[in-house]
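Milestone M4 deliverable, item 7.
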Amino acid sequence: MSRITLEPATKEVKNGQGERAFDQGVIRVKMYSDDGQCADGMSLEVFEDVIESEGNWVMVNSAFSVNGKGVPGREAKYSDGQIEVKMMGKGRVEELQSKSAATYYIKDDILKSFALVAKQTRINLREYNQRKQGLTAA
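Output delivered:
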């Protein structure tokens, strides 16, 4: 069986002048393969979409680059007890071939529970971040 967890982090948000306005809480769902060779993460909202769209591919992210390094786009599909993540679009050919797809086998009850937790966390984080914005603006 693969493992799944919530990964908390903060993200600095800047105002129009490029100054730090506040730190926004960010939580992602992260899945790890049995052997620890593969790991994929996605936002709470995307994870909810993947679970709700059972049997259909959902875009996790489009291709982009960071510091000149190409990052390929990814799609994910949920079916009973597993989530498959595959690379798509641009990116270095070697990277796409070495990690073209990963399947995470996780008990179906756990996946559905994480989807519910993701929804509740997303709702509460939105409110938390709005309160933080209100405190820093005052």
